[in-house]
Amino acid sequence: MSGDKKDLRPLEGITPPKIFDELRRGVLGQNGALRYVSVAVYKHTTGKVPGNILLIGNSGTGKTTIMNNIQRMYHDVEEYRPFRAMTIINANLLVDAERLEFQPERLLAAVEQRARALVGSNPSPEELKETMERATVCIDEIDKMSSIVAGKPNPIGVVLQQGLLTLMEGEVVTYKTYASTNGEEKPVTLNIDTRHMMFICGGAFEGLYDQVYLRVINPASGEKMKSQAVQMADGQVRIETRFALIDFLKPEDLFEYGMVPQFMARFDNVVLLRDLDVAVLKSILLESLDSPFVRSKSFFEVMDIELEMEDVAASTIAEAAEKNIRTGARALRTVFNKIINPLEYDPWQHEGLEKKPDGGHKLVVTAEMARRVTAPSSG
Ligand SMILES: Nc1ncnc2c1ncn2[C@@H]1O[C@H](COP(=O)(O)OP(=O)(O)O)[C@@H](O)[C@H]1O
Ligand SMILES: [Mg+2]
Question: What residues pair up with 179 in beta bridges, in sequence order?
């Protein structure tokens, strides 16, 4: 990349499909969700009102990964330089639990820090304000801020949702900081207009899954679940009836869960992430940007050891991860680490280490190794 201005495309030229392709390098099996995200990013970066997004998906399906990949894309794509003031913050950090107060300053301080890193030293108040107003703000674990937790009212949640809702409405927030005027650092008060910020919130909404499931299986509900054929690693096909939240979720379910209706109204799209099936988990293991296998491969490369994995080994790991429905792709790393840790510790003592004709070495993760750590008795 030359960084030459004349090489830069107009932002309108980076269309939603191009954004989608870029995000998909790191986020697999969530194409539906990524399409919504791509459109929102496109609107945001071309100066339109982006439309805020709420991401809902079981743990380990890629919510935080989507946020991280937007951030990665802003950094990889030179044209997005003006938009790099992005922050990912946990919802619980935005309320003072003792005083029951919404604290937008914490969010703005995180945005400011990014903005400063972007515009360099001694920014003018205008530079700082403009950069902050273009921010992408991701608020993670939003479900922990439900107005009801374990059947009891959760006042912090109400405070947070109410605070965020006014912020997302396009408020002008006063923010005190320092900036450079006439070459001198001085305290300034910035009026930050949040209208052009993009907000992406995410949460697992764990109880929501059971709540909607119970509504759906109630014969009086009139809802019907779908069956699908699932192919196993050994080639067998099983018919499974699967409950997918995506097929049944209604706005009322979220209100019942404890989300304030006016807060929900600030989101243009409630986007549901799918539970990842074996095929997707396998490709996350083998080829995602953050693939544990690829990471380990480069670890061994330094020692001139080529790491390989038998196809059945990868399938076995993916199947074991899929059984852990509540941890999603996180389980891939756990299972894979059980196999790879002893090898990374001391590959030279391993009986599977082969010498290659060119002088280097080769190590293969075999189906047998995968079976050993995924067998029910191995814990
Ligand atoms: N859809 C996905 N595509 C690629 N990797 C994923 C995906 N979902 C989860 N992962 C991997 O699993 C781990 C946990 O994912 P994360 O996005 O943090 O889950 P959560 O939905 O709970 O926020 C990460 O290491 C990530 O690399
Ligand atoms: Mg997460």
Answer: 186
Pocket around ligand 1 at a 6 A CB cut-off: 27-30, 57, 59-65, 284, 288, 290, 328-330
Evaluate whether 178 touches 123 at the Cβ level (below 8 Å).
no
Q: Indicate if 187 and 288 belong to the same structural domain.
A: no
Partners of 191 in the beta sheet?
174
CA 177 → CA 96, 191, 194, 269, 316, distances in Å? Answer: 20, 11, 17, 33, 54
Instruction: Say whether pLDDT at 327 is over 90.
Output: no
Assign residue 208 the CATH number of its domain: 3.40.50.300
Give the ligand whose atoms come closest to the C-alpha of residue 328. Answer: 1
CA of 161 to the centre of ligand 2 (A): 19
Instruction: Kindly tell me the burial class for residue 327, based on how many C-beta atoms sit within 10 Å of its own C-beta (0-12, 13-18, 19 or more).
Output: middle
Give the C-alpha distances (Å, rounded to integers) separating 161 from 102, 136, 187, 379.
9, 18, 30, 41
Between the CA of 62 and the centroid of ligand 2 the distance, in Å, is: 7
Of 203, 200, 205, nearest in space to 253 by CA: 205
371, with CB counted inside 10 A (0-12, 13-18, 19+), is: middle
Return the CATH number at 340.
1.10.8.60
Alpha helices in the chain (DSSP H): 16-24, 31-45, 63-76, 104-119, 125-133, 155-168, 206-217, 251-257, 261-264, 278-287, 292-301, 311-323, 330-345, 367-374
The Å distance, Cα 328 to ligand 2 centre, comes to: 11
Tell me which of 27, 28, 65, 70 to substitute to probe ligand 1's pocket, judged by most ligand atoms within 8 Å of the beta carbon: 65
Q: Are 313 and 366 in contact (CB under 8 A)?
A: yes
| pTM, 2 dp | 0.90
Q: Which pLDDT score, from 0 to 100, does residue 361 have?
A: 96
Mean pLDDT of 265-273: 95
Rounded distance between C-alpha atoms, residue 142 and residue 259, angstroms? 10
Alpha carbon of 242 to ligand 1 centroid (Å): 21
Res 378: pLDDT:
53
Based on the domain organization, do 135 and 237 belong to the same domain? yes
Domain of residue 370 covers 278-378
